Amino acid sequence: MFEEKKAFPILIAFALTIVIGSFSYNIYQFLQAESVCESDKRLTTEIGGEIELIDQNGKRIKLSDQEGSISLIYFGYSYCPDICPYDLERNAYVKDIMDKKEKKINLVFITLDPERDTSPRLKIFSEYIHKDLISLTGSGLEIEQVKNLFKVFGKSNKKDNDDETYLVDHSTFTYLTDSKGKVLTFFNRKSSPESISEKMLCFL
């Protein structure tokens, strides 16, 4: 009986060592996986596609014709009081980070409010956000088609034709796409410029 009592703490200590060692190894494996780029494993091939809309200069353009091999795309509207400017400023900072690394990317904004966001309006808005921002608008039908491609939610709260101060409820994801507009991955509002930039390097 004495020998069994004496051996019990040793068995407990051994078991704890195994558990802690296993836990530490799993954490190590997780951190290793997080730090490895798997650029061949995109999020999906089902979301996104070619974008052909009108930019802030009134010119019809295609995403696939732009210089960057990947694009950072955000959907919103220029009259957005808070969320859109904040997210776009974050994305603009990502653009600056990538420029310093000499990595060419496209910084893109697509309006969900084509009625108010005309090319002249978007030109002013773009200059405020970033000199290289590509801001896109189009007809209501064209915008709906792009929304469907990217599974984007956007709904106007306009009450009537006299309502000029309406808000637009919308999703707030930023999409990373290839040159053909197919989604590689996406980022939420909590993603930092640094983490986005690091992830983008996996696809360049």
Q: Could you walk me through the main structural features you see in this protein, from its secondary elements to its overall organization?
A:
- By secondary structure, the protein is α+β, with helices and mostly antiparallel strands.
- It has two domains: 1-36; 52-203, Glutaredoxin (3-Layer(aba) Sandwich).
- Helix content is 40%, strand content 20%.
- It contains five helices and nine strands.
- It has helices at 2-35, 83-100, 119-129, 140-150, 193-200; strands at 52-55, 60-62, 70-76, 105-111, 134-137, 154-156, 168-170, 174-178, 183-187.
- A seven-stranded mixed beta sheet has the order 2-1-5-4-3-8-9, sandwiched between helices. Strands 6-7 form a two-stranded antiparallel sheet.
- The longest helix has 34 residues, at 2-35.
- It is globular, with a radius of gyration of 24 Å.
- The model is unreliable at 10-35 (pLDDT under 50).
Query: Please, how many helices?
Result: 5
Q: Largest sheet, described in full?
A: 7 strands, mixed
**Any idea how many domains?**
2
- The CATH homologous superfamily name of the largest domain equals Glutaredoxin
Residue share in helices? 40-55%
Give helix and strand order, one letter per element, not per position. HEEEHEHEHEEEEH
Q: What sort of overall outline do the alpha carbons produce when their principal axes are compared?
A: globular
